[in-house]
Design a protein that fits this description.
Largest sheet: 4 strands, antiparallel
Structural class: alpha+beta
Strand content: 15-25%
Helix content: 10-25%
Strand order of the largest sheet: 1-2-3-4
Shape: globular
Oligomer: single chain
Length: about 70
């Protein structure tokens, strides 16, 4: 993945991220990429890169979150 591909990605911020102010500092953005993967990054630090998922990986992650598989991490 080139930096150019991420630079031209159409990022979308999570609706749960709020205004991004001091009371809600954590913001997540996602972007579909041309090769079919999905990029995820911290919108507070977009220069620190992104994590790339295949659609199947992202589907598995979302399914696990909805099932409470990661609740012990909060």
């Amino acid at each position: 993945m080139t930096d150019d591909a991420l630079a031209h990605a159409r990022w979308r911020k999570s609706s749960f991220s709020g205004g991004g102010g001091a009371d809600v500092p954590d913001c997540v953005e996602v972007a579909p990429l041309r090769d079919g993967r999905v990029a995820v990054r911290n919108s507070n630090h977009p220069d620190q890169g992104a994590v790339l998922f295949t659609r199947a990986e992202l589907d598995a992650w979302i399914t696990g979150v909805k099932a409470g598989k990661f609740d012990d991490l909060t």
